[in-house]
């Protein structure tokens, strides 16, 4: 089994675990980002307050709306990202060693190369998995209130009233809705700001790899072993790296979510977006720069916690997989 495949599988598994733990926060944050009312028009709810409101008005299950496609998307995204990231990273490390033999550099991958590797991996991931996240965003922002507002057909025959309920808002219904509105292209709504958002994991991995390399270098110089990095340290490194990346790229996440959420036809034109630039201008005009940071506190908590868990679990899974493969090879050589 190749190192890239191990990292891809480990990344997918770690992503699922992190998603399960932090999903209610993600649902609340998606609703906060897609809230089109200005701060003056509506009181801003805190994370816990917003979560309690969803539970009270719609039930616990709405905090997990879209969980199934989200888990598929998380596994696919993390698997694709880590697979291509490791392949490109291995190529960058090989090139760095070649340059060292030619008297250029110290043989390590530089910050710019790390940023480029993460960006290219992110672009591949976005183009392949964007349709899944369009469906997830729709399901997360769909509320019981939306269902209650759907027209119901009532008929009376022999004093018996028949009420036909609208179909449940599941994954298949959401897919049909997106396709009915915009066709195949609808599944790539928000892809342009999402492509720009590859800078988020790029910044995240650049910070993570830089900090990790410094720790390992320090450990190696102190004779403690270059690979002697604890799970807690990995957790903290992942949290710090994600925090920095989230603060920088959050406005792009808001625009992406607005474009992927259901556009309420017939509603206020100020709240309907034709594209990335239109959304950008309308948010600035009608909500101010505050609109680009709605729910950022929730997102920081959710994304930092998820990233920290992901890095910690992924490293442990990779370590276990390599240990098992080494043990198997030793057993085969003995037999």
From TrEMBL:
<feature type="transmembrane region" description="Helical">
    <location>
        <begin position="229"/>
        <end position="253"/>
    </location>
</feature>
<keyword id="KW-1133">Transmembrane helix</keyword>
<dbReference type="InterPro" id="IPR044712">
    <property type="entry name" value="SLC25A32-like"/>
</dbReference>
<dbReference type="GO" id="GO:0043132">
    <property type="term" value="P:NAD transport"/>
</dbReference>
<keyword id="KW-0472">Membrane</keyword>
<dbReference type="InterPro" id="IPR018108">
    <property type="entry name" value="MCP_transmembrane"/>
</dbReference>
<dbReference type="GO" id="GO:0044375">
    <property type="term" value="P:regulation of peroxisome size"/>
</dbReference>
<feature type="repeat" description="Solcar">
    <location>
        <begin position="2"/>
        <end position="91"/>
    </location>
</feature>
<feature type="repeat" description="Solcar">
    <location>
        <begin position="229"/>
        <end position="320"/>
    </location>
</feature>
<feature type="repeat" description="Solcar">
    <location>
        <begin position="109"/>
        <end position="214"/>
    </location>
</feature>
<comment type="similarity">
    <text>Belongs to the mitochondrial carrier (TC 2.A.29) family.</text>
</comment>
<protein>
    <recommendedName>
        <fullName>Peroxisomal nicotinamide adenine dinucleotide carrier</fullName>
    </recommendedName>
</protein>
<feature type="transmembrane region" description="Helical">
    <location>
        <begin position="187"/>
        <end position="208"/>
    </location>
</feature>
<dbReference type="InterPro" id="IPR023395">
    <property type="entry name" value="MCP_dom_sf"/>
</dbReference>
<dbReference type="Pfam" id="PF00153">
    <property type="entry name" value="Mito_carr"/>
</dbReference>
<dbReference type="GO" id="GO:0055085">
    <property type="term" value="P:transmembrane transport"/>
</dbReference>
<feature type="transmembrane region" description="Helical">
    <location>
        <begin position="109"/>
        <end position="128"/>
    </location>
</feature>
<keyword id="KW-0813">Transport</keyword>
<dbReference type="GO" id="GO:0022857">
    <property type="term" value="F:transmembrane transporter activity"/>
</dbReference>
<keyword id="KW-0677">Repeat</keyword>
<keyword id="KW-0812">Transmembrane</keyword>
<dbReference type="GO" id="GO:0005778">
    <property type="term" value="C:peroxisomal membrane"/>
</dbReference>
